[in-house]
Amino acid sequence: MTKNKFIASCPMPDFGFDTITLGHGSGGQLTNKLLEQSVFKLFSNEAIDKQDDGAVLDIHGKTAFSTDSFVVSPIFFPGGNIGELAINGTMNDLAMCGAVPKYISLGLIIEEGLHVSDLWAVLESISAIAETYGVQVVTGDTKVVERGKGDKLFVNTSGIGVMKEGIAMGKEQIRAGDRVLVSGPLATHGMAIMSVRKGLEFETTLESDTQYIGDVSGALLDEFGQKIHFMRDPTRGGAATVLNEMIGGTGFSVELEDNSIPVLPQAASACELLGLDPLYVANEGVFITVVDKEVVENALNLMKSFDKCAKAADIGIISETYPGKVIVRSGLGGKRVVSMPVGEQLPRIC
Amino acid sequence: MTKNKFIASCPMPDFGFDTITLGHGSGGQLTNKLLEQSVFKLFSNEAIDKQDDGAVLDIHGKTAFSTDSFVVSPIFFPGGNIGELAINGTMNDLAMCGAVPKYISLGLIIEEGLHVSDLWAVLESISAIAETYGVQVVTGDTKVVERGKGDKLFVNTSGIGVMKEGIAMGKEQIRAGDRVLVSGPLATHGMAIMSVRKGLEFETTLESDTQYIGDVSGALLDEFGQKIHFMRDPTRGGAATVLNEMIGGTGFSVELEDNSIPVLPQAASACELLGLDPLYVANEGVFITVVDKEVVENALNLMKSFDKCAKAADIGIISETYPGKVIVRSGLGGKRVVSMPVGEQLPRIC
């Protein structure tokens, strides 16, 4: 698989070493040499160029703050790598709060022996995505642990975003009659990772959906404001977890139509093969939103106007029939309760 | 050693399990059960109570943003634990930028098999320190990796602080004649960790100096404003690294007086035994500041007025004699260059 779906903007410099050693985490000359040629070169901006212990930023008003650590295995997978996952994931979390991402921090925990070319590919992906969406990586930290005490690379990204005005989202905003929309096919990321781990073969490669979807969610909020009642990206635990967390403890229920839930054919086959329900599988570049019934058609059309959300779908309704529960109706008229998953289906998916 | 130097404010709840499993990182019911009884209970505040993907905060003006990942081994050591280290470290980084810490994010990477009582002790320390200094843990993330793919617990803390006004710090502010002050004995943290790893025995236990020193640095900035030219906490790489990074590329030099550099007797013995120079050993609860010569005496007295900085000392001067270099003069009149360390002296010290 290719390591990087973005066109390499910068050739890898000659670091003078092939693998990361404990010394690169010392804070001394080796650390400086590594960072000068990678992080400080790729992410250059006014804040990070100062190389202080923190970045000084000008921020005014309502601000979203989010953090995520990524431990996905393998760190390169069809459709992406741990770096893309990290920056997209944190930017998406900010977007789901109703914010426009502005600043990212980058914390690396490297296992001794990581190939420096792998680190470079990960950093370059992060840099390309940040640049595409006008986000700055402003501060960071690098640690190295001994062989066998980590697993190649763990990445923490924390992010700061500026909240949009005139929005009101949250589970308390949901009302009966609202529609549940999903921005794209479910289970793609989880099954892409599993297909590599289990060595499954498909006619075409199943690629992770890791992508930033804050441009789409942001357009929805700009256009429909308080008619957008809820938004969340169904990562670990999948759609089942997000919908159960959303509806639990309310007097409402979610009623999904099985036939309306988009799942790519390869992901569906893989799920069937492994006995997994796509509603429980992790996604990375998809969000679920609950919108006022008045705007459902226009909202869906706006979502579909973005290539990355061409397969967006209206998958169900908020009702009062089964308070606190998520129900799926099959095409044949049967229904089943989708409960909160208990433990781990797919460890280290993100 | 005691796990927690703070008085337990909350007894550990009955989690119903003794160790962390992969399922606790799933994002499902097990994750919720773990977090509801620990993170959400200990850190309860308006932002985190919402359990959204990010926190929404009101921030106005110049803001500092910093991140640090902590991989210290062992996670409990004389004088502290990885949680204290993490929150103190990030709060200190913000303070060194000239900010007052306000908000912290907490990212946990847990190795399967960690005792839940160890996690509780770490979280409780973080909670106690946050409460003491009016800082809120507002957002977080928990991942679990398989046994042998991590090392008990890695902690990322990112932080946001409000910048003080009327300050101007940075290497470009340094002038000949300025004095170099240190807020306490050097090498304490590094040697406390090493004493556990190497099984060294002293007459009294050498304890890590992990502590928040932003109250002291903040008081200096409030009192002396732009007369404080530079501030940095000499963590990984020790004082030698901070001073070299500060002076490198300038026309100035740092001239230290060996006799003036405070080092606790046990730390000095341990350094001698292991052949380490205290200037290269990591500190956690100490900062170095460069101040205008006009205010040196008052600044030192202000520092010493805090119990935690009772051993603060004036350790040297900024000169133009050896541009870009750090020099130490011995009591006998000899002098040596203290260069930037190359690689790792003490891996995983923080």
How would you sum up this structure, described in words?
Two copies of one chain form a homodimer. Chain A is globular, with a radius of gyration of 21 Å. In chain A, a hairpin with a 2-residue loop joins strand 2 and strand 3. In chain A, strands 8-10-7-11-9-12-13 form a seven-stranded mixed β-sheet, with helices on both faces. A four-stranded mixed β-sheet of chain A has the order 1-6-4-5. In chain A, helix 4 runs parallel beside helix 5 (116-132). The first copy, chain A, has helices at residues 29-37, 39-42, 46-49, 82-96, 116-132, 188-198, 214-224, 238-247, 265-274, 296-304, and strands spanning 55-70, 76-77, 80-81, 99-111, 136-145, 153-163, 179-182, 228-232, 253-257, 288-291, 313-319, 326-329, 335-337. Chain A folds into two domains: 22-163, 60s Ribosomal Protein L30, Chain: A, CATH 3.30.1330; 171-337, Phosphoribosyl-aminoimidazole Synthetase, Chain A, domain 2 (Alpha-Beta Complex). The longest helix of chain A is centred in the middle third of the chain and has 17 residues, at 116-132. In chain A, 59% of the residues are buried. The first copy, chain A, is an alpha+beta fold. Chain A is 29% helix and 25% strand. Chains A and B meet through helix 1, strand 1, helix 4, strand 4 and strand 5 of A and helix 1, strand 1, helix 4, strand 4 and strand 5 of B. Strand 1 of chain A pairs antiparallel with strand 1 (55-70) of chain B.
